[in-house]
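Hey,

The postdoc asked me to send both predictions to you directly instead of through the lab channel. I've kept everything plain text so nothing gets mangled by the mail client. Protein one:
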Amino acid sequence: MQATAYTYDPDSRSGQVLLDDGTPVPFDAAAFDAGGLRLLRPGQRVRIETEGSVGAGEGLRITLVTLQTL
């Protein structure tokens, strides 16, 4: 799935992405570290892997954030 980086805190290595429908979804340090990134800037296109779903009780959880490449 693709998204756009919305916020990123380098100290906690966590932040939020915006899905293409505008829904903000948070990610934690584990998801950021799994992608091997060192930095993320707002506006960058990213690829995410998730568990759960937006409509489910537990919600959508991001398990991986990496840069979108063509």
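Protein two:
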Amino acid sequence: MSLGITKEHKYDYEHVRSSEELFMKFRDKMSNEEIAELVNCKGIVKVTLRSINQSKGKRVFEKWLNDCFKNSHNISREVAERTLKDVDQAIARKAEEILSRK
């Protein structure tokens, strides 16, 4: 099965949930160092096409995804939603670990 990916495509590592979003969510519960640990935890950073990363910017994933479908970008909603679910589970596990140390 071809995904239409060629060696000409450029890739980035992408924080699916932005550091800004996580900071706003956890700033009352965690120190800046703990938030930095959360932001870079295993499972939150994924490889994606550079064009997708640049399109998303700092927007909240769900808002960006809805905009993508309005603008007819060729993105699989199923894959995107599964990725987001996996990322949110990784964040929840890491947040629980960090908060349990207090």
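Summary for protein two, as requested: The mean pLDDT is 84.

Thanks,
C.
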